[in-house]
Design goal:
alpha+beta, Double-stranded beta-helix, about 15% helix, globular
Length: about 260
């Protein structure tokens, strides 16, 4: 066992958080900004790269950090180490409404491929790398570009899915067609490609994009109902132009703002 063996419990429904129990000298690594709370005697350190034990040389650490930079993530991660005598707990929160998915890499052949912003935290020793797309169509039109994240090792890792989570187990040759932004991740044997929607009306008036992803088994696929890009798009579309309130949901509209003490129109 190369990665630290950690225990965990997931709390909540819409806005979940994962509580990880660490034995003395056990550690967990997490993306910056996901920390929620921790017990005393847990030491927090900013580390260069992913903190895996694959290559502890200077060049190895630089390469590890460089891989993270290619995925759009920070060069640094945060490690939480239990320096006390007994069991201690540290918690990490979801970035937006959805589900936290525990992934045991030892049960999945040591590798899991996920979208670039899905990773939340993992036992120290898990390698957080990159997965280059070998197909031009997937890289150009796949929504995730040429690069996805690759989680490798034999420990526990946790990814986040927006909205409601769907887990699909595909048999050999079985195909699932998915909106490109709705993919959370999949096991290493799943074949991932991009397919053109087809049809002039579908292309021009469909409103679902020009391409969808095809996932071919065998393997397991995790799908999210609310990709962050879709959530952000809806929020931006709802922001009034010029910062002025549209008075949505109110019969009085701007007059209602005046009665509420806001004299801006």
């Amino acid at each position: 066992m190369n990665a630290h063996e950690i225990d965990y419990e997931i709390f909540g429904e819409e806005m979940q958080y994962v509580e990880i129990e660490l034995d003395p000298q056990e550690a967990v690594v997490a993306e910056a900004g996901s920390f929620m709370m921790m017990d005393t005697d847990i030491k927090m350190n900013t580390i260069f790269g992913d903190g895996s034990n694959q290559d502890n040389s200077v060049l190895g650490k630089i390469f590890s950090a460089g891989k993270r930079m290619l995925t759009g993530e920070s060069l640094f991660m945060t490690a939480f180490l239990n320096i006390g005598q007994g069991k201690k707990k540290v918690s990490f929160a979801s970035p937006y409404p959805g589900k936290i998915v525990p992934i045991d890499l030892s049960e999945l052949g040591g590798r899991f491929i996920c979208q670039k912003d899905a990773f939340l935290c993992a036992a120290k020793g898990v390698s957080v790398g990159i997965e280059f797309s070998k197909r031009l169509g997937r890289g150009l039109f796949g929504g995730e570009g040429f690069i996805m994240q690759k989680l490798e090792g034999d420990g526990m890792t946790f990814v986040h899915a927006g909205g409601t989570l769907a887990k699909k187990t595909l048999g050999p040759g079985e195909v699932l067609k998915v909106d490109t932004g709705c993919i959370v991740g999949f096991t290493k044997d799943v074949d991932y490609d991009i397919e053109f929607v087809g049809g002039i009306r579908n292309t021009v008036f469909g409103g679902e994009g020009l391409f969808f992803a095809t996932l071919r088994g065998p393997g397991t696929v995790y799908i999210q109902s609310l990709p962050f890009s879709r959530l952000a798009g809806r929020v931006l579309a709802a922001i009034p132009r010029g910062g002025k309130d549209k008075g949505e949901g109110s019969i009085l509209g701007g007059l209602g703002n005046l009665l509420d003490g806001d004299n801006r129109f």
